[in-house]
Amino acid sequence: MIRRVSTITSVGIFKAFRAPKELPDLGQRTVFFGSNGHGKSTLVSILRSLAIAETDGLDILKGKRTLGATSPTNVVIDWHDGEKSLFQGEKWVKKLPADTSVHIFDAEYVRDNLFTDMVTIEHRRAICGIVLGAPGQLLATRLNDALEKKKEHAKQIKRLRLELDERQARVGSSHNYLEIPEKCSLENVTARLRRLEKEIEHKTGEEALRKRKKVPQIVVGQVPVTDWREVANRSVSSTHEAAQALVQAHLQKHFGGAASGQNFAYSGIRVAKETCPFCDQDLASASGLMSAYRSAFDGKYAEAKQALERLLANVQSFRPASFMSEPAQGHEAALQCAEEWKSLLVNPPTISTLPTWWRDVREELEQVYAELVRHITTKKDAIDHHVPPQLFDKVNGVVARVGQWHRQVNEEIAGFNAAIDEYLRSLGETTLAALRQKRGIALAYEQRFSALEVKWAEDYRMEADRERVIDTALKDADMELRNYSASVFDKYQRAINRTLSSIGCGFSLKELKPAELKGGIKSVPATLVLEIESHEVSTETQDRKKPNFRNTLSEGDKNCLALAFFLAGLELDSDLGKAVVVFDDPFTSLDRDRRLKLHEEICRHAGKAKQAIIFTHNSDFLKLVASGGLFSSDKGVPYIHVFAHGSAGATLKPLVLEEYLRDEHSRRVERLVEWEETGVFPSTSEVFKDLRRSIEFVIDVKWGHRLGAAQNLGDQYRTLKSKQLLSSETLEEINSLHTATSSQLHDNQTYRVLRDASHGETCAVLRQGLKLLEKV
Length: 776
Known about the structure:
Blueprint: E1 2-11, E2 14-18, E3 29-33, H1 40-51, H2 57-63, E4 74-79, E5 84-88, E6 91-94, E7 101-105, H3 107-114, H4 121-171, H5 189-211, H6 225-232, H7 238-255, H8 259-271, H9 287-296, H10 299-317, H11 320-342, H12 358-381, H13 389-426, H14 432-448, H15 451-502, E8 507-514, E9 526-532, E10 535-538, H16 549-552, H17 555-572, E11 579-584, H18 592-606, E12 611-616, H19 619-626, E13 639-644, E14 650-654, H20 657-678, H21 684-707, H22 713-723, H23 728-745, H24 759-775
Parallel strand pairs: 3-12, 3-13, 7-11, 11-12
Antiparallel strand pairs: 1-2, 1-4, 4-5, 5-6, 8-9, 9-10, 13-14
Helix pairs in contact: 1-2, 3-4, 4-15, 5-14, 6-13, 7-8, 7-9, 10-12, 11-13, 12-13, 15-17, 17-18, 20-21, 20-24, 21-22, 21-23, 21-24, 22-23, 23-24
């Protein structure tokens, strides 16, 4: 703990300070009191410079050097364990004791880390650093160091990789240039290259053989003899045949055999009922003719005739000559391909030639087809005529002989192709591409193992190994920082909201999280979104026409939020027991109620620190301490008065809290007594103002810790009454005095009758107030 500030020379308003003997040592809890401009902020700046002496601490004291000072800057801070912190000339000669840190809340903390008028990207980066704290700073430093190494190494490894690509392209090998094996000495490389060139020459010929077509199999077309037989065997009953003859004779008689007669008759029979449409013959008694008509144009009979017509067209379209030529042409192509392979094969098989009966088979097939056409034509004309089954048997016989020869030839072709496959396998499995790769490796070998290349390869491998190490370190550092931030940001947000809730703020922190973490704390901002009455307010919005951080929160709200951040940091600091915590006027822009609640929060958190120091200019805070606040519960809390007097500069002296507060109160009471005795006073409002303040002070000192937000006489009266802290008679006197004095101090319609109190009325109220002071 800090025991005392012994010496301050040429720092701000402290020109040549030496701690007097009567100045008390700082305790575990210490209060510095002084008006604005008397040196409190200078003391805080000295402590801030000491806290960050390793980084920017020197610049703080350089900027705080007393204007026109001739003596060198000198600061001596004594610690309870006997150590000293010394600033001499332009640097801290002795810094903080080991395992000691200093946390400071002041206007600079708010301005630099959180906000002034709005939250900027720099503020959000600072928030990220604050939340992550000392452990996060170490992790971020580790990540930043890894990133710097990555950037430095990236240029070097990029250059080496470009060189590797050039070497690879120059060698013309798909093999990894750095992994070329040392399989033989440099002297044997030339012989190996000659051998590879010959192998490549042979393999080039082999590759051409592999691309050559194999012997194709012959193909014989299909003859649909079975389908033809089924159609040709179709027939209808003789009734239809007799009917056809009778109808044909009738049509011949009336139409002379014209083709249109049959169509006309077919149409007529569809509409005819009792008489013939052509001769008006009675059809009811001519049932034979009627039956003939109906039989002749029966659907089955017509269908049979149409099927025979299609069969005839199918048979006529089939040409025996083309059927026989297809296998012959396929056989010729197979013979030609086989001749190209025979010289490469040791025992080439022989493909069968065309049989001697080929011409006879062709002629026989043509005769059978001609006869088949005649029989189908006859059957079409006379439906009862049947095609002889022997014709189809002959066709089947011819096709069977051709198919047998076709299968025999294809079996020989399959054997021939198998011999070709065996021959290609005997040439070896090594591909031309593999041989060329070996040649590339051999060529690369000559270049790769020269003295310069060996040195280059060693450098490249070393840098590649170093790259893997750097990447692993970067990945580990980034992951560790991510995992740490994932836990600490949630805890920090909950701690902040607990503080905001406890001091009665009407808003909370809805979102607090870091952005992308790569780059460390210096480059990582935190997202900050507030929730006010279920509405989100982002800190990034700067449009004055929309609700945003700048125009939604009051100065008091912003100060409370800043304190909540600071107190959350104290709550989550595992090393707080080793730290000195400093508060510089933490109650700025706050009303009494918030001051009281924040006082409790500060005491709760700072009570866990090794040492807590509060700087204030607010006498109400001193009253709060005197009224039994939590901070004064520690016995022996030293109070130090910071004040400046003339050209001598600022100094420190003991502050007896009771005497200071009593002196101020006593001066007011003395004035009131003098005015009551002489009857002479400046104005009624001055009398009532001092009278109210005196009574409010006494009540505040005696019962302030139980009055809460009560800060004026009216509030105090209502709270005292509700909690029954005074007798009803005394309470009535307080209320009466409050009513009487309000007529001169408040523009309220209720008291307008008494606004212009007379001299006698004023003296009466004054006497009543002095009696009340004696009673309470």
